[in-house]
Every structure is written in C-alpha cells, then in structure tokens.
Amino acid sequence: MKVNPMVKNFNIAMIIAGIFLSSIPAFSQNELIKDQKTHKALLNYLESICQWAIDSDLKSGELKITAKRRTSVFINSNLARILVAGYDLTGKQEYLDEAIRWFDLLVELQQPATTADGKKAGWWGDFSPDGNIYFGDAGTSATALAGVIRYVEGERRNKYMNALELYANFVRFGTDKDPQDKGRNGSNGWIIQDGEDKGAVGCGYYRNELSEYPYTISTSVTGAAFFSCMYELTGNSEYQEIAENAVKWLLKKRTPFGEFLYILHQKQLDEWPLDTMSYVADGVVGAYMRSNNQEFKTMVEKQIARSVQWLLVGQNKDGVWGELRSEDQQRSQGVLNLIVWYYHDVTKYKEVKNMVQANCNFFLDSDNSKAFGVKELPITTGFVGLGIAEVLEPGITYRLK
Prior knowledge:
Elements: H1 5-17, H2 36-55, H3 73-90, H4 93-109, E1 111-114, E2 120-123, H5 135-146, H6 154-173, E3 202-206, E4 209-214, H7 216-234, H8 237-252, E5 262-264, E6 267-269, H9 273-290, H10 294-314, H11 327-330, H12 335-346, H13 350-364, H14 366-372, H15 378-392
Antiparallel strand pairs: 1-2, 3-4, 5-6
Helix pairs in contact: 1-10, 2-3, 2-15, 3-4, 3-5, 3-15, 5-6, 5-7, 7-8, 7-9, 8-9, 9-10, 9-12, 10-12, 12-13, 12-15
C-alpha cells in the first residue's frame, strides 16, 4: 500500500513520542473558549462568514464570487448550515431567511426517479440536475436540509420531509433505470447488506459508471450522517440501523494509527487524508449524537481515540492541518468538529483543548484567515465556518430539534 508522506511522518512521530491519550490527565472543569473576549471574537468571525454567504447570494444557487469552483449543492448546503447555526447563536433572522431560500431551491432541484421495486425516489447531482450523482455531495446537502426542518412548517415542511424521504428511498432501494439516461444500469440499492462491507454505501455513479462499491465519503455523510438524521426526525429504527452499520464499517477502515482510508470504486487513494477525516468526523459525530444506543456510543468513544491522537500529532505548529491551500486542506477543518465533540462529550483532556484553541487563534489572525482562503474559497469557507460554530456551541451544527 502506498503511504502518504505526511501520514508516514505522523505515524513515525506517534511511535517516537509514545502518545496515548489514556496517559494524559483529565481537566474536567476546562472550557474550550478562554474568555468572553475570545468568545466575542469568534462569534464576530462566524458572523462575517454568514454575511459573506448572503453577500454572495447563496439563495440564488450560484455564488457571486471569483473562485474557480463557485458552487455545487454541497458547497451551498454547507454555507446554509452555517447560516442556521449563526441564527441559533445570534437570532439574526436574515441568516435563517437566506438559508431557507437556498433549501427551497435545493428541494426544487431534486430529480424524480422510481426505485427498482416501484417506489417513488429522488436524487441530486453535484451540480444538480446535470451533475454527477455522488452520495457524498448529495448526502451533505440532505443532512443540511434535515437541520432546518425545525424552522419550517406547513406545506414547506411537508416538501422538505418528502425530499428527504425520496432521497432515502433512492439510496436504499435504487432506481429502475439510469436516472440521467446515459446508458448506464439501474440499481437495487447502494447500501451493502452483508459480508465484509456490510453497512458501507456506494458512490452512486462514478465517472459515467454505476458504482455500488464502498465509498468512504458517502458511507459517512449519507450512511451515518443523513440516515441518523432520518432516524431522529421519523423514529424509524431501520434508519438508525443503517447509520450505526455505516459507522461500524468506517471504524473497520482505519489504520492502527487512527487515519481513515479513502476507498472509492475498488481503489484506495492516499492523497486526501484530512479530507477523509473531515467527512468521517461529520458522520461519526452526527450518528453518535442522534443515537439512543448506549452500547453503540460507548464503542464509538473507545475506538475514536486513536483518530484524535492522529490529529494531535499531525497538527501544524500554526494550529491547522495540512499544506496551505492544498486540495486536502480545503476540507481539513472538518476535523475540528471531531475534536470539539471528543473534548465536550467524551473526555476533557487538556491537550485536546489546546488543539482547539491553537486552531481558533490561527483564524482570529486576519492575515492567516486570508491566506487560508476564508471568504474566498467556498469549500474552505464552509468547513471553517462549521468548525467555528461548533467551538462556540458544541453540537449546534448537528441540532435537529
């Protein structure tokens, strides 16, 4: 197996340092934010991201910015998810209004399908409706949509819930034909039901091929994150089982050092270790928070510690992860959600708290923030905003009720 040089260095460092979180003393009274001044600075920073999303005309579906990749359903939905969190933290109605306008459009963009067994279903392309059908992008969007359900009612709520159910049907039961009429096959469903890969979710359609093989990202954001949302919203225990099985598969696909493997269409790719960790973090944390299965939650707490160690060793001296402006770093800030959750819900290790504070200090420096691409690169901006919101109030971007 090819080993990413950065990951190799992480692994060597862990061996030399002998870092095991069980040896670090706990500080049960510590808080993530040092003082009121820091809290205000972080909140102002988050509000600047919210305003940037509004100024970029998120609700239109096409961000009015100069970045090469201006929009996709997952980029826009991450920004809308930040706006919902911003509303929760500040009460500013314009944040919620902009998010809802985007989600209205997202629901309109959903394309109809019929499952292999005759049920109604629906799907999104990455640049819907003409883009690729990737359950990474679509699952990110559907999960964000689930997070605004509590703020809508009447016909709008019914439309939103219907869109979520249609997407669930599409992933679970497949489609009777190629949804985009490109001569590819239909599917009986993308959730693997048995065998070594039980719980994994396929990609959807990958490079003009039907892809039912396990995909790490879709297993996390659709299998774990989205279906755990569906369980909390509907009480359907089948959705909970899907989410828990997805997490179990993800946890099987870790190295001994805590890194998660990026598996796509029968290949293992090594160039996006932080991207992968970010997406896995969102699925694992979401499934954990929405579960009422204590045995499952205890298992997650125990097994995820190695991944926190991996992040502890891999954090740059400046407080972030990865190479500046690299493709991998654009999504790297999703790891902050995992660290915040681990500190807040599992064990309050001082070293974990220090990781969070170093990361926040980086972004509160305006020169660092600009260099990182915040309020310039939309993918980067979305992941940074979600992480900052979690620091301000752990669990806020996972809230459904």
